[in-house]
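Today's session is about reading a structure prediction critically. Students often jump straight to the picture, but the first step is always the sequence itself: look for stretches that repeat, for charged clusters, for runs of hydrophobic residues. Only then move on to the predicted structure, which in these notes is written as discrete structure tokens rather than atom positions. Here is the chain we will use throughout the hour.
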Amino acid sequence: MKKYKVIVVGATGAVGREMIRTLENRNFPIQVLKLLASSRSAGSKIKFKNNELTVEELNKNFFKGFDIAIFSAGGDTSKKFAPYAAEAGCYCIDNSSAWRMEKDIPLVVPEVNPEVLQKGRYIIANPNCSTIQMVVALKPIHDLAKIKRVVVSTYQAVSGAGQKGILDLKEQLTAIENGETVHVNNFQYQIANNLIPHIDVFMDDGYTKEEVKMIKETNKILNDFDLKITATTVRVPVYRGHAESINIETKDPLSAKEAKSVLSKAAGVIVQDDLSKNEYPMPISSEGKYETFVGRIREDKTVKNGLNIWVVSDNLLKGAASNAVQIAETLVFKGIV
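Below is the predicted structure for this chain, in token form.
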């Protein structure tokens, strides 16, 4: 089997570390793995298989001779360095929002639209975490019954805001337990014992940028710009695992039984929906898993052809790291790289 030279940019961040673990756990065929980060993190040591690798400072000259670079270092870094990777003939899979809505940049969820990956399209965007799990669940339904409208409310874990978000929740819970003053560092308000209906900045129309991302990215990934989507995104005091309540209206009739059947056969989906056993997806049961979990599948009787589903996924894996690695695997499988 051919092996590949791979770079991880942003290797010391929460998602970067998951990318490295995912490359190892999925046994991606690696000849050489180079770990890059900012000057602040250069010199750090990270284990990969039986080796301890040293993180180096990101430099535009590193990409020559490498096959794939997976970025999780923020939009500014991606905008600056991804073109250097592309120029060097290195396929760049970027986890930031920098390239997602660019017309000629593929925005990819391998279970949904692998056909947009093509030779010579060197910059590839990894979608928003909450978008990824939603489109994995919507795609089989859309193919079968043509979705007209989606109303989604998200329940997003603090790890979606990186290590700082995790630390905020930990420190606040400890302060509450010890009767100490709660300090707010990363989120707009205290997140411990609270919900915050505000992720990213507010736009002029009252939606947040996170909500707009979900809407526009879903239209692009499903290649259906007539599909109507509205979203409300909420930060919840959970460390890991995003959940979504999704209301769907379809053009053609689709029963809950039919929806459950098509979802149970869909790539990357696990249906957990046995109410007699109180079986339904939860963040705690999705942690460390690559799949998207769907449950509470039921008909919405207030509209014609309506469905409700509940969707849960590990936001650091399928929502980021494993989707990026799956894109790399697809590049290999299709003979693009």
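Discussion point for the tutorial: The longest helix spans residues 129-145.
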